[in-house]
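Notes from hallway chat w/ T.B., transcribed later so I don't forget. T.B. wanted the structure written out for a chain they're using in a teaching module, and asked if we could keep both sequence and structure tokens in one place. Agreed to drop them here.
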Amino acid sequence: MTLDPQPLAPAVAAAEAAGWTTVRLDLDGVRSKAELMRRCRDALRLPEHFGENWDALADALRDLSWLPDAVGRLVAVTSWRGYAAARPGDWEILREVLEEAVDFWREGDDGTPLTVLLADPEPEGAPKPGPGPKPGPKPKPGPGAAHRTPGLKRRPG
């Protein structure tokens, strides 16, 4: 997960050019956990049975089978500063859930990475840069390397 805010357009353009599925999770105006869960459900196109709580979000981010097959997945979280300021505790839990999902997919056997980008909005009239270099394939662990599946953390609510 990229913790330093980054411009959105270059990352999305590069990811799409490389065959990644891109999702934008816009948190503009979100000030409650319930609204955050609805935004996650809608942006990530989560299944109908999504439970709209932290554990359900963590579980869903470890599945992603309903998203199109791709060489990678990028979730760009935009307009997040207002939510982070209004709900700092929930913001920290969301960051933890996203980081755990990134780790899960990084260590998975299917080679499909998940990247989460905290993005600052593009300034009006900013030039749109061309796609950058394509990300290379994820290296597979060598013989004898231990495969670790991150443990699930259960969170309140």
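Follow-up for T.B.: The longest strand covers residues 114-120. Might be a good example for the class.
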